[in-house]
Write a structure and sequence with these properties.
Blueprint: H1 2-22, E1 35-40, E2 44-45, E3 55-61, E4 67-76, E5 85-91, H2 93-105, E6 120-121, E7 127-128, E8 133-136, E9 142-149, E10 160-169, E11 173-174, E12 180-188, E13 193-201, E14 206-216, E15 219-223, E16 234-238, E17 245-249, E18 256-257, E19 262-264, E20 269-276, E21 281-289
Parallel strand pairs: 1-11, 3-12, 6-10
Antiparallel strand pairs: 1-4, 2-3, 4-9, 5-8, 5-10, 7-9, 10-12, 13-14, 13-21, 14-15, 15-16, 16-17, 18-20, 19-20, 20-21
Amino acid sequence: MKKILNYITILLAVTGLTSCLDEDPIFNPDDSTNIIEIKSGGGAIQSPVTAPNPVYINTFVSDLQEAIVPVTISYSGAGTAPKDITVNIAIDPEVLGSYNAWYNESEDPKNEEEDHDRYIMLPEAVYEIPTTTVTIPAGQREVILNVKVNPSLLDFDNEYALPFKIVESNYGVVSGNFNTAVVAVGLKNPWDGVYTNTYSGSLGSGTNEIELVTTGPYSVKMIPGLIGVYSNEWFMNVDPNTNKVTIEMNTLLPVATDPSSYYDPETKTFYLKWTSNGGGRTFEQTLVRKAD
């Protein structure tokens, strides 16, 4: 009798499962509501998920007089736009204020000074927006608003940004999370980029890929750090007149750069010879810039 009851229980469970599988799924992407959002602000996103707005970083060489920052407005979800969708956009200082307020309260390692805003508004003389009304065409998913900027009018002392906000749309639902974005526009010097780093010396030898990131008009910082292996902060200064190079560090002092160290602008290559710990550790490096 017990075996019969167990068999009936199993049969009912299997029958019920089959019935559930025959029904429509609980979530059907085709039935989801499309939203209007700022999909991209040109460069790579550089903000943590806890930030109130996504931040997109755009950097340009300092002598460039005209550059384009593409801001993408998207009809996100199932399918394409069923008709032309008109979207109104605004430059909203409150969006930037919201991000800076969060930044001042956060533990972002870049925020070394109390109440130091991360970004200031990009001056009006530096940028040109062709329109504040864009149209996502029927059958498409997005439209790109090309913002023209003049990097040569900026400086290395500040970090600039344009705060965008979707004001309204004639169709779809404006996103509550991605209706705003901070589009940062900054400068990079001519040595900023990705390099193949070949090193030798008292810490061994090898080859890896590193990044030199702008820290000033004539200085860069190596990422990830010392010889591309260690976390020790490592900086390089370039004399724009002679292409001579000097190395700086905050640890393993004192550091001395051999006078033979220089940058070859023709091959975009650094040739470095230097020491740390007062000559206790020796280094030779060749950094060859990779194609952009």
